[in-house]
Amino acid sequence: VIVGVERVGVDFDVVYKNYWWSMLRLAQGLVDDVAAAEDVVQDAFAALYRRRASLHEPQAAVGYLRVSVVNASRSALRRRRSARAHLSLAREEHDAPADHAALLSAEHQQVRAALAALPERQREVLTLRYLADLSDAEIAEATGLSHGGVRSAASRGIAALHSSLGGQL
Amino acid sequence: VNDIETRIRELVNDTVDAELGPRRVAPPFDPRRNTKPRRWAPWVTPLLAAASVAAVAAATVTVAHVASEHRHTPPATSVAPTPDSPTPPPSPASSPATSAAPTPDSPTPPPSPASSPARVSSAPPSSSTPGPGTLSSSTVVVDGLRLVPGPYGFLVPSSWQEAYPLTNWGGSASDALFSAGPVHAPYTGMPLTIEYWLDRGDSSVYNRNGQPILSSLAKLSLCPAVSWQPISSNALTFTCAPVSGMVPTGILLAETPQQGIKQLLVTLSTGQHEATTRILDSLH
Fold it and tell me: What is the pTM of this model?
């Protein structure tokens, strides 16, 4: 859960300490790979670090981080798809450790499969809505979609999840 | 829907928490650590450079070959453009509509009189029964597309299919999609599509007197609007960033809060501007 931005200053170290975990959760929701999520968050904070002089408001810094995490996650997924194609790996699973699935309950695996089946845009919108508790306007800012696009993607995504997770709802 | 959303929210959060394990404190931040270089193997850059050189060489040979073939080809008598040649300028004897060649995704337009100055030609009245809803105009042939009244009160190309009918996917809005061919996610703004959107549950675009606020209305565009302009006190048109060389163009119409908001997003090729305009104008 994101900590209220009023309680942090513009100090980079404070932003890093307060938001690292929430950004990691967001990245994990988007890329479904802990190591890749840690890289995504590192890249996002590295980018913020380079721009720290030009960002004076903590809220702007958090918004910048979210956009960075979304963009870096898109790049990570794109690289993963490219790597699969070049290596002729037709399997759907990513390169998670062998015991990865065993550590998750059947329920969690089903949720993961349902999220993975969503188109990228819908998955991003729902992840930002449910993991980061963002409003439609904030999601639009983080993803580059319009408000209408966010709502459209969200409603389609919810309908798809409702269909695929019917037994758990 | 709220109960379902709450449950989905719980499931998503539980899943991510299970994947990440107990909450950790942030590791020491090292601004010099860059994760990107390790993603590229050392041989990737030389490989890309070699591939670029090979591609340039292949392109050069291909262009030289095509140019050589053109020198030996007699002049074509047809004015229809081919993929290898740019569209010829219209001859004075033909109208723009008759000189425009059909695109692969549009039907061949019926021949129109060569002397007709109009770009838009009305087809003979159809004897078929009109569809449900208010039909704003009759069948027309524009820019190589035969536009017929569709089921929701606006014109659609007759050869296109309804990818999905007006559907409520959740929330207060419903939408329908027409397309020239198969469609896939993300649907919105895809080339050669028309998306119709109807929302009867959004009060945020109206002021206290029930009058629409156009700047708020513009934010409801299905794709991020790069420009918009009002066309009346309750409607506006907008355009979005090009997709595959096509500019998604839309109209947003706010009726009373009870009647809701209608939106039409048309993505045709840039040469079909007139058809786009006719389709948008037909929304009522």
Answer: 0.49
